[in-house]
Amino acid sequence: MKMTSVVVGVLVFSASIALESQPAAPNNPSCDRLAGASLPSTAVTMARVEPAGPFSPPGGAKPLNAPRSFCRVAATLTPSADSKIAIEVWLPENWNGKFQAVGNGAFSGDIAYPAMMNALARGYATASTDTGHSGNTGSFALGHPEKVIDFGWRAVHEMTVTAKALVASYYERPANRSYWTGCSAGGRQGMKAAQRFPADFDGIVAGAPGLDWTGRAARAVEVAQALEKNADARLSPAQTRLLNTAALNACDAGDGVKDGVIDDPTRCAFDPSVLRCKGAADDTCLSSAQVAAAKLTYSAQKNPKTQRPIAGLHPGSELGWTELGWTASARGTGLDQFRFIVFKDPRWTIQQFDFATDIVRADDGDEGIINALDPNLKPFLDRGGKLIQYHGWSDPQISPGNSVHYYDRAAQHLGGASRLDHGYRLFMVPGMGHCGGGSGPNTFDMLTALERWVEQGTAPPSVIATRATAGVVDRSRPLCPYPQVALYRGTGDTNDAASFTCGVRR
């Protein structure tokens, strides 16, 4: 489609301008000398040049291809007596003059090599951390409160400080811009940085952020508990498809375009009771217990102590549900949160969960270590920081309601959405699942939009998203800054972004 070539053209043009505008780096920077770098609470364990071409990450991960040679630095950070934070910093030839840190997923204790390679391809110096532990479970937290702090915020901050120092030493000048990109847990990390360390990054892309870490854990565990207790309430794959079809039938055309995507599920009053069986349950209807399970999955809750809202999933997300409700990752992360962090008991089970008391215990015990719910973005925005947040409306793993709740609270804190617009924009993505995929347009470039906002002062009025089927782009649509949505102009191809404009639906 024409829209794709336009987007690619913008990418190439922006990249060339960025490279041409940078002062030259030293002709022969020395990678070896970084092995002896002396930095606070830091031990450099490796500093060597990696050539362009095949790159094999440690641990047998899938081989990658380095588009340029780079100085690869590994270090261990020990900001507390119980900290052991691994980081890697990559310093490329033909540097674009900028730094990009990349995020993790779930309880991940691994360096994000593919994300670093993406940053390297754009000429960035880049860094990643294992967040202070190995593996992808919450078991590291048992008996190690300092490691919980490392995971919650300290590892990313300490990595960023150290990486910036290594960049400045290697190139003999500091990076002139610093960015963060991450989705899911990586989105949470970015939001946490904006809230707690407003000077760490000039620009942040935070996708599908797990900012309500305890709330998501509680909702996933609550639904799993109900479905573990009653196997008859579980939906088969055929029944989740049935439920999804019914949701689309009820909600799809609400935006005036019937395209297999729910534009804004908060405007749809879908009731799964329409599928209740008149006789015996089968794959063409839902039993009363299954209807109740669907309603529980969609439902919102509140912390009974603070009254803060805790979102459920939305109509349109059903194809990502499992027989125990939310995704396996959401359920596993939730179980680990309560087992290892809240109750500190590896024998704790989902059947011991009590929402009314345990969400209070989880929220109170977190003390802002992992949750990224502080609505005060003023320090970040006042120093010129730019934040782009995005979230798929059909996300079955982290409720998109979390992003909307946060935006609304941040706007209220500053006295209105207009006070956010100069530095913070939220893009809700119709039909997209968790960090990508789904039936709607789900491929887009938020980083280029962020670069133009930070470096040229051009705020993104919209971002073009595309969808490909069998490798061929067959739909494009503008993503609009919340609360705006894409409005069909009334004429033109509904698969072409040019047929839509951003506005507020009345």
| Main beta sheet strand tally, sense and closure | 9 strands, mixed
Helix content: 25-40%
The average pLDDT score comes to 93
Secondary-structure content class:
alpha/beta
Poorly predicted spans: 1-24
Alpha carbon gap, first and last residue = 31 Å
Strand element count:
17
Overall morphology: globular
How is the largest sheet built, in terms of strand order?
A: 1-4-5-7-6-8-9-12-13
Q: In the CATH hierarchy, what is the architecture of the largest domain at level 2?
A: 3-Layer(aba) Sandwich
Query: Which CATH first-tier class of the largest domain would you pick?
Result: Alpha Beta
Oligomer: single chain
Number of domains: 3
Tally of helical segments: 12
What percent of residues are in strands? 15-25%
**Radius of gyration over all CA atoms, rounded:** 23 Å
What sequence of helices (H) and strands (E) makes up the elements? HEEEEEEHEHEHEHHHEEHHHEHEHEEEE
CATH topology of the largest domain: Rossmann fold
SSE layout and pairing:
Layout: H1 2-20, E1 42-50, E2 53-55, E3 64-66, E4 70-77, E5 85-92, E6 98-102, H2 113-121, E7 125-129, H3 145-171, E8 177-183, H4 185-196, E9 203-207, H5 213-229, H6 237-251, H7 288-298, E10 301-302, E11 309-310, H8 328-342, H9 355-366, H10 378-382, E12 386-392, H11 400-414, E13 424-429, H12 446-456, E14 463-469, E15 472-479, E16 485-488, E17 500-503
Helix pairs in contact: 3-4, 5-8, 5-9
